[in-house]
Design brief:
CATH class: Alpha Beta
Helix content: 40-55%
Order of helices and strands: EHHEHHEHHEHE
Oligomer: single chain
Distance between the termini: 26 Å
Number of strands: 5
Length: about 160
């Protein structure tokens, strides 16, 4: 049985963006493309309506590319349970109110029992100082949190 991955919007941004001159951003773009091409098929990959909504924002051409990349990816529901969990993360000051969308990503991945939440969002998701409190909060409420990681961490033996 394949492990499940919830793909957060930052992955699509790196996947479809024009090549960056910034060396770190360019490396993340390449890692994202490598994961998408070499590893995606090894997992059950999901997004949510929030990812679709966020991917549709901004420049028309960039949005088209992001949505095109998502064409065959199933979408998980943003249920009342997801919304309640996200609001609880914010109300408990585990995540700031400005991270409401990120709280929904955590909620979707958690409620739908994803194995991984794939992201390049280091501000609120792949953040070593926040992930412990997030995981503790979710476990205290009876959930098994997904492992938050970047494409580089989910390359397996396909390192370049």
């Amino acid at each position: 049985m394949k492990k499940s991955v919830y793909v957060e919007t930052s992955i699509l941004s790196y996947l479809t963006a024009r090549p960056s001159r910034d060396i770190l951003r360019a490396a993340r773009q390449e890692l994202t493309r490598q994961w998408w091409e070499k590893r995606r098929q090894d997992f059950e990959v999901f997004v949510s309506q929030l990812v679709l909504d966020e991917a549709a924002e901004g420049d028309d051409e960039a949005a088209r590319k992001r949505l095109e990349a998502l064409a065959d990816i199933p979408s998980l529901d943003v249920t009342d349970e997801v919304a309640s969990l996200a609001e609880s993360l914010i109300a408990a000051d585990v995540l700031p109110r400005t991270a409401a969308g990120d709280a929904i990503h955590v909620g979707v991945a958690t409620v739908h029992a994803m194995d991984f939440l794939l992201t390049w969002n280091f501000r609120h998701l792949a953040n070593a100082e926040l992930i412990g409190p997030i995981r503790r909060f979710l476990r205290e409420r009876g959930y098994e949190p997904p492992l938050v990681c970047t494409p580089e961490e989910l390359m397996g033996e396909h390192q370049w």
